[in-house]
């Protein structure tokens, strides 16, 4: 994938912001975006002429963080894809995924997908191929469901949480993004066809690109790739590509940002200068340079989510690159009363992130 970092500039920061991290953004069309947040809501945004995207409605129903979104376009093929309905699938910390549809002005839950043992991070829809109409969801395991909500197959996705899923064109393969910094390409039989390296920390989302880009990913290393678009927040949770080539990102600061290479949609220079100043103030020393080379940045600090129990959200462990992994693991373990075996696992986890 080529690096297009010099071509993309801020188009808009969407207002109002969510009340917590924006964990997922989804470009439904050039004029509609969906967002999901740790504030338990799903936002629907529509473009209003020259004023850009505005909040159309907030969807509520999840009882914990909403981590992911996928859109099912309406078609004439089956009753489930009637042109009378548009559907969304969302995944949550409540260990379920929900399929939503809109009738008149109301959004309602069609199917609740239950069976995961941990938070559901990744969701996707199979729109073509032999599994067309099925759903994919993931915690550490990847589940394949039929449209009635029955489990067809389970794959061992990764030793760490699988954060995102995307179906590749043709519907015969799919892609996963994971906490182990890797992007994997899978067959629907559960075979890993390829593993892609490049991110320096957690990969939070992978999504299909447009205009010649196979897919786009984003993560804990301040970047969205194939384009390196710097953010003031360390964690870029989600990225999505619009049909017109623009991209939209969601970050840990609760902000949704649209980016474009089309001069007609790029923000004015005063807005761009103000944004770059905010980025420079937020980034570690030496990360924002003047050459805009687009080269990968080595992180100075790693933030690693550690699961202490199945019932509570993970606790963040901050590791300063260059310090001793064992010392950090022991300090964290002593603080939270963890066993020696668990401390050993945390040390190994830190070292794996440094490799």
TrEMBL record:
Task: Please give one Gene Ontology molecular function term for this protein.
Answer: ubiquitin binding
WD repeats: which residues? Answer: 155-189, 196-229
BP terms from Gene Ontology: proteasome-mediated ubiquitin-dependent protein catabolic process; ubiquitin recycling
SUPFAM superfamilies from the UniProt entry: WD40 repeat-like
| Keyword Repeat attached | yes
User: SMART domains recorded for this chain?
Assistant: WD40 (SM00320)
Task: Please give the superkingdom of this protein's source.
Answer: Eukaryota
- Chloroplast as a keyword? no
Per the record, GO CC terms?
A: cytoplasm; nucleus
- Pfam families assigned: PFU (PF09070), WD40 (PF00400)
Alphabetically sorted, this entry's keywords are: Cytoplasm, Repeat, WD repeat
Entries under PANTHER family matching the protein: PHOSPHOLIPASE A-2-ACTIVATING PROTEIN
Q: What is this protein called?
A: PFU domain-containing protein
Organism in which the protein naturally occurs:
Kwoniella pini CBS 10737
Lineage per the UniProt record = Eukaryota, Fungi, Dikarya, Basidiomycota, Agaricomycotina
